[in-house]
TrEMBL record:
NAD(+) binds at G177, L178, G179, A180, V181, G182. CDD domains: NAD_bind_Leu_Phe_Val_DH. It comes from the Bacteria. The active site is at K80. GO terms for biological process: amino acid metabolic process. SMART domains: ELFV_dehydrog. It comes from Stakelama tenebrarum. Residues 141-349 form the Glutamate/phenylalanine/leucine/valine/L-tryptophan dehydrogenase C-terminal domain. InterPro entries: Aminoacid_DH-like_N_sf, Glu/Leu/Phe/Val/Trp_DH, Glu/Leu/Phe/Val/Trp_DH_C, Glu/Leu/Phe/Val/Trp_DH_dimer, Glu/Leu/Phe/Val_DH_AS, Glu/Phe/Leu/Val/Trp_DH_bac/arc, NAD(P)-bd_dom_sf. Gene3D superfamilies: Leucine Dehydrogenase, chain A, domain 1, NAD(P)-binding Rossmann-like Domain. Belongs to the Glu/Leu/Phe/Val dehydrogenases family. This is Amino acid dehydrogenase. One of its GO terms (molecular function) is nucleotide binding.
Length: 350
């Protein structure tokens, strides 16, 4: 497995592969950039089909974390960790402690927390052996809540830019994924008058949304084709492919999932069809913004400047509006404009 051969390798500063035979732990930590500060990024625990798939996910997600932090104006870089395996089968206290010891070998250049397959309780177990952990109840807490709040601020910008409407009353929003963040977004949209269309691989999550939020359920395979104003991917990434980009019926795509575009071509197709795409790493920055609240508890980061949380989350709205305007002025897609701006900020350094 050659890191340099990966199509998503982007001059990453450091890639570490760890294993622990007694517990069966296999994990990859990718640090994309520390030019703006020590790297931050969550830990994803998934049954990847191959080590290559896991590596590419870590590389792609760590780069997105660099962009996310840069555009949010945070003094941190981007990193990501992935644990390979089915968390329902192999996750236990011993494995999480072994993982924490791996993080300790990297040191203060990387701090991590919760992501897919990891709960706050899991993160707290890791924190029993590692100080380089954010997202515990003792510091920043569950990141899904600020992430959902930040997504809502971003969705308001999308609705204003695309539909010239303030708020969500009467808007039809198709939410793909009803996990912690997706459910939080759906609840807030419902409270503000949106009409929900939902899909999730878990039947109980869908049933709850139908009963409690008045949502209409559709199969996961059809949610991107739903007759909606906004399509909100809130599950795993890569859902907008060349094929699905041609099938989306909504006039805007904006959700919490990371790396929603499978490739640049998918973004171009959306633009050609007049569909507004909100770069996911701008929209879902609430988790890392919240994580900043914990940085002064992590060794080596006591001097981190922590912006007010509510103010930082609300800023996602204006940041997206500026990116949309910049994209129009430059004749680029919003994804291209956001990426170039992020790379410019990282290139300038601190």
């Amino acid at each position: 497995m050659d890191v340099w051969d990966s199509p998503v390798f982007d001059e990453h500063e450091q890639v570490c592969l760890f294993s622990d035979a007694p517990t069966g732990l296999k994990c990859i930590v990718a640090i994309h950039s520390t030019r703006l500060g020590p790297a931050c990024g969550g830990t994803r625990f998934r049954p990847y089909q191959s080590d290559r798939e896991a590596l590419d996910d870590a590389l792609r997600l760590s780069r997105a974390m660099s962009y996310k932090s840069a555009l949010a104006g945070l003094p941190v870089g981007g990193g990501k960790s992935v644990i390979i395996g089915d968390p329902r089968a192999i996750k236990n206290r011993a494995l999480l402690h072994a993982y924490g010891r791996c993080i300790n070998r990297i040191g203060a250049s990387f701090a991590t927390g919760e992501d897919v397959g990891m709960s706050v309780a899991d993160v707290e177990t890791v924190a029993e052996v590692s100080p380089y952990i954010a997202g515990t109840s003792a510091n920043s807490g569950d990141p899904s809540i600020p992430t959902a709040i930040g997504v809502m601020h971003g969705l308001r910008a999308v609705v204003k830019w695309r539909f010239d409407q303030d708020g969500f009353h009467g808007m039809r929003v198709a939410v793909q994924g009803l996990g912690a963040v997706g459910r939080g977004v759906a609840e807030r949209l419902h409270a503000e008058g949106a009409q929900l269309i939902v899909a999730d691989i878990r039947e109980d999550a869908v049933a709850a949304a139908v009963e409690q939020l008045g949502a209409r359920a559709v199969p996961v395979s059809d949610i991107h084709r739903a007759d909606a104003d906004v399509f909100a991917p809130c599950a795993l990434g890569g859902v907008i492919t060349e094929a699905s980009a041609r099938e989306i019926r909504a006039r805007a795509v904006a959700g919490a999932a990371n790396n929603q575009l499978a490739d640049a071509l998918a973004g171009q197709i959306l633009a050609e069809r007049g569909i507004l795409f909100a770069p996911d790493y701008v929209l879902n920055a609430g988790g890392i913004i919240s994580g900043m609240q914990a940085l002064n508890t992590i060794p080596g980061r006591e001097e981190a400047k922590v912006p007010p949380l509510e103010e930082s989350l609300a800023a996602i709205h204006d940041r997206l509006m500026r990116i949309f305007a910049r994209a129009d002025a430059q004749g680029k897609t919003p994804a291209e404009a956001a990426e170039q701006l992020a790379r410019d900020i990282i290139g300038r350094g601190r």
